[in-house]
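Known limitations

Structure tokens in this collection are predictions and should be treated as such. Users comparing against experimental data should check residue numbering before alignment. To illustrate the layout, the record for Aromatic amino acid exporter is reproduced below. The input appears on top and the generated tokens appear beneath it.
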Amino acid sequence: MTNKYTLFGLLAILFWSCLLAMTRMVAESFGPVGGAALLYTVSSMLLVLVLGVPKLRNFSWRYLLIGGALFVSYEILLALSLGFADSRMQSIQVSIVNYLWPALTVLFAVWGSEKKPNWLLYPAVSLAFMGVAWTVGGDQGLSPSMIAQNVMANPLVFAMAFVGAIIWAVYCNITQRQQSKHSAITLFFIATAAALWVKYFLTDAEPLHFTLGSSVNLLLAAGLMAGGYALWNVAIVGGNMVFLATMSYFTPVLSSFLSSFILGVSLPGAFWQGVFMVTLGSLGCWWVTRKKNAA
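Generated tokens:
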């Protein structure tokens, strides 16, 4: 039975690894804001069908307000950073900036505890940041001039992805401290969709044009998004969470590979070096704190 739940968790990781590329494709079809609003609306509907609507009494109002605001902010920043990227290659670079959140989550958790951090934590976090810089540098790798040139070409999307990573790390720590067996994900998805529709109607966003291809991409992306959360929700019940947690740290590698395939983008060797640095840095953060807690 444990193997079954663990398999669900691995499928969730696979779904999430495909999701960033599909989010970009939806944005190309419907526009960054309209595409994101449609994506979270359809995903919310699917989550309601699969998981139902959680009862408000299972959560504190403080968590619903603070946690909900953090969740909605993160999802909007991530979706718009991918949608407003100048190119598919830039959207993949932005997605790697987003993957700073695992290292930041561990860092914030240590800072928020009374335990003295292992000194190895900081080199691990630095490695993750260096890896992101390496990917943004493109073919040149860790070239300050090239990194600055690529970031300044569209600084807003990189800023949104970085701020989003910080917000998600804070959200993860707040949610963990809640220590509730219930998930408010469906409520937060509905709130995200509503916020995006408000933005869509208050701005001069491009009109929505539905075609067979764009509709299929929308349904696939929504299925991946809702399916990932639904499968993970089941996996945490009886799966091998130590194994799944370890595997989840390899998501940047898997996501980059699948995004390259789905979007038809050839990623240079320097980019892959940076991705592995991000992955190793995140794994290092988790490992040094895991050893300390075990001790």
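For this record: The first helix runs from residue 2 to 30. The chain is about 80% helix and 0% strand. Please report discrepancies through the issue tracker.
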